[in-house]
Each structure stands twice: as structure tokens, then as C-alpha cells.
Amino acid sequence: MSHKKFDLVVAGAGIMGMGCALEAAAGGKSVGVYDPSGEGTKASWAAAGILVTRDARKFLSPFREFYVRSIRMYPQWLDEIAGRTGRCVPLHQGGDFQVYALDTPKGIENWEGKKKQLERENSQRFTLTEKLPDFLASTSPLENVRVLHFPEDAYIQNRDLLEALQAACRSAGVHFLSADTLLPMRFADGKTHCEFASETWVADEIVVAAGAWSVKILEGLGYKMPMIPVKGQLKRIAKFYPDDCMVHYNEDIYFVPRGDSLVVGATTEPGNWQEGFDAAGEAYLGKHLKTFLPRLADAALEEWWGFRPRTRDRLPMMGWLDPEKKWALCTGHYKCGISMAPMAAKCIARMLRGEKTLLDLEPFNPWRKQGIAFTAAVT
Ligand SMILES: Cc1cc2nc3c(=O)[nH]c(=O)nc-3n(C[C@H](O)[C@H](O)[C@H](O)COP(=O)(O)OP(=O)(O)OC[C@H]3O[C@@H](n4cnc5c(N)ncnc54)[C@H](O)[C@@H]3O)c2cc1C
Fold first, then answer.
1. Which of 42, 57, 91, 333 could be disulfide-bonded to 337 (CB atoms 3.0-4.6 Å)?
2. Which CATH number covers residue 172?
3. Dihedral (Cα; 172, 173, 174, 177), 10-degree rounding
4. What is the CA(308)–ligand 1 centre distance, in A?
């Protein structure tokens, strides 16, 4: 059994875990990352990669500010990753068309909500029309619509990003272990001990960034975390329009270009841990495709699913779990983790160094009112 010592051990190799690992390693720390499934195979891989700011100019909440400013960090983050690896992952600023069908109560409700949000955020760089763009009109019968176009909204090929991020971590000296067994972490002599089947790691600091699985790790440490998995099912279909843009319909379904295909998503299934693309996914996507684009042939090129980590109050948990033991958390980003990763990684790295974070992490403190608690066994 070999022993390894690290300044930082990260549990989870999704976008959050690898993002935190890269920042810490770039700052000079020795970093180990372990993940039972290997690198970048869960929610971060399953995501659609949408990064939409809707041109927000006023931040209505700390969450919204974190989210928007993180997306604005993307060009710099991608440059940093490319600088280490030579891998350029493009940010596709193809814009987004948001279609609201005013024949349906849901469409009207979504539209009213969106108008209010645009006003409150003082959005300016968008256009509003009352007809579908030509590329949709040929496949859709909808007439009573409002269509918002945000020309600057972006998306990223998240699977390419994960590969580049992993390569950047390796180039910064991060050590990866695809551990199949993990005893609960143990704190002794001022260090945390992680015991795997083949080796033992000893760390000064720990970041738990295991997405929806973080609950299970915390359980083993004596904490109760109010977070559930929210399954999302998606598919890819052949691209039926030439532009590089995204399309959202009634906030029910979206299309994101991926090569010569389109990612179509997604279901929102709280509490569902069932693996697999199933009848519920087919029914949901099929129903909305039929309403919006009945003339479209939607044979699937690929079908998949992922589990988003959702907290009770829908806010992520980024901060200290136990500052004495130097255990931190970076999880609970629900539907926004791809968007929030650059800012989250930089803030957590600074927090570990004892520096002021770029944005205040207090609203995301794991110990907030709706946050974690000790389990009965520990208290
Ligand atoms: C269908 C879908 C669509 C989405 N679309 C978007 C989008 O368009 N834009 C956006 O911003 N966000 C999107 N998201 C949300 C985003 O994907 C997540 O918020 C983000 O990926 C969470 O990253 P993570 O690293 O915390 O979790 P994950 O990527 O799930 O990584 C967690 C890792 O922890 C590992 N793990 C599990 N158990 C353990 C253990 N015991 N020890 C150590 N590691 C463990 C897992 O194997 C996994 O690799 C989407 C999510 C889904 C599911």
C-alpha cells in the first residue's frame, strides 16, 4: 500500500472538482483528485453547455451576479486552459432565440416572467419580434409568438472542455485516481486520511466537489446535506437550421448546436436516481418537439442523461464545511454548473489560500439557514 501526501485532495472530477484542482495546482499546491467513475463522466459531461446571461446589467441577487460574472470570465479561463495544453475550446457566441407561444397558459406565464426579468435587469442588447425567424417558420406552425433574440448569448462544447481541463490539470501536476473504493475520510493529527484499495492519501485540505453524490460523502463524515439529484434526459438530432445559434421554446425545450447536430433537452426529474434514457425522457422531449416543430424528423443520434445537484434553496454550497479540519465544499450548482465553474474554481482556490475571494461566498455558505447540519450520530 503506497502513501501519498498532498496539500489538497479533491473528491470528484467533474467541472467543479477539476476546476478547483487546476486553480490550486496553478497556485503551487500539490493536488490529488479521486473519482470512482473517472474524469468528467457525470453531470458535467451530460450538460448542454448553455451559457446565457441575457445581457444582465443589474444583478438582482448574489446568485445572479456570481452566475453572470462567471460566464464573463469564460474567455480568460479558456485562454488559461489553452495556454497550458494548446487545446483551444471555442466559446460559441452564436446568440439565442427565445420563443414564447402565447396560445398556451405556460407560454404566457413564461413570457410575463421573462419581460419582468429583462426590465429588472435593465437588459438592452436584444430584439423582440412577433414572428418566428425564417429557419424555424418552415418547420413550425406556431403563429402567436413573441421571440426574443439575444445575439451575444453563448454555449460551449462541455465534453471538449472537460478533456481540456483534465489535460490542463495534468500539465499542472494534478494526480488523478479513479478509486473504486473509498472509506470515509478520517481526520487525525491535523491531516485528513483517505484510504483507497491500493493507496492512502494524506492531505492538508479537502474539497468535496462530487456533484449530486456529495450528499453520500458528507453522510459518511457526519453531516446531513439538503440536496437531491435532479435527473435530466437529452438527445441529439440532426441539425435542421444553418445558424450557430441556440433556440429555447417556452422554457420547455432547447436546441444547442453540437457539430452538425443539435442537443435537445431536457427533463427535470427531482429525486430520480434511475440510470438510463427512458420512456419519460422520450415522452417529454417527444411531446415538446411535436408541439413546437411537428414537421421535424427527430430521429435520435444519441440519447443520454445526467444528475444535477440541487439544494433545498437552489443555491450552491461553496465554502467551509469545517475550517479547523480544512474541509471545504463546492457543489449544488444545479442547472448552472458549467456556467458557474470559472468563478467557483477561482473563489474556492482563494478561500483555501486565506485570501479575499473575487465575490463574497457568504450567500453560498454551506451552514446557512437552509444548509447542512450535523447528523444525530455526531451531535
Ligand atoms: C441534463 C443536464 C443539462 C445541463 N445543462 C447545463 C447547461 O446548459 N449549462 C450549465 O451551466 N449547466 C448545465 N447543467 C448543470 C451542470 O452540468 C452541473 O451543475 C455541473 O456539471 C455540476 O458539476 P459537478 O462537477 O459538481 O458535478 P459532476 O459533473 O456530476 O461531477 C461530480 C463527480 O463526482 C464523482 N463522485 C461520485 N461519488 C464520488 C465519491 N464518493 N468520491 C469522489 N467523487 C465522487 C462523480 O463520479 C462525478 O464525476 C446541466 C446538467 C444536466 C444533468
1. 333
2. 3.50.50.60
3. 150
4. 6
